[in-house]
Amino acid sequence: MTEQKNINQNERRNVDTFKLAVHRTELANRRTLMAYVRTTIALVAGSIALTKLVEDQWLNVVGWGLLPIAVISLLIGIDDYHRVKKSINEEKQDGGL
């Protein structure tokens, strides 16, 4: 009886550990998306600063060049978020959650 109880407790710990690991991974995925969003905001802010506040023509071109880079950064972040989220959900299904 005691051996069966120990096995059940160990299985429960393993399930709890798996649930916590999945939750940590989901939170890390969200933090990564927010980092992409912060990067995009910084690139857009830099672009606006260069195009509006600086009179040099070359820096104006650089400012306009930052905008597509910002959009690409955001799209990569969104794609990465959805790809990892799908992988996490598949792992949840395989793990029985």
Write the topology of this structure.
Layout: H1 2-53, H2 57-95
Helix pairs in contact: 1-2
Q: What radius of gyration results from the CA coordinates?
A: 23 Å
Distance between the termini: 28 Å
Can you give the mean pLDDT? 90
Tally of strands: 0
Question: Helices and strands: which structural class?
Answer: mainly alpha
Number of helices: 2
Shape: rod-shaped
Beta-strand portion reads under 5%
Instruction: Please write the string of helix (H) and strand (E) elements.
Output: HH
* Range of helix content: over 70%
Largest sheet: none
Low confidence ranges: none
What does this structure look like?
The structure is a single chain. The protein starts with a helix and ends with a helix. The protein is mostly helical. The protein is rod-shaped, with a radius of gyration of 23 Å. Helices cover 94% and strands 0% of the residues. Helix 1 (2-53) packs antiparallel against helix 2. The model has no long low-confidence stretch (mean pLDDT 90). The protein has two helices and no strands.
Keywords for this entry:
0% strand, 97 residues, single chain, mainly alpha, 94% helix
Short synopsis of the structure:
The protein is built from 2 helices and no strands.
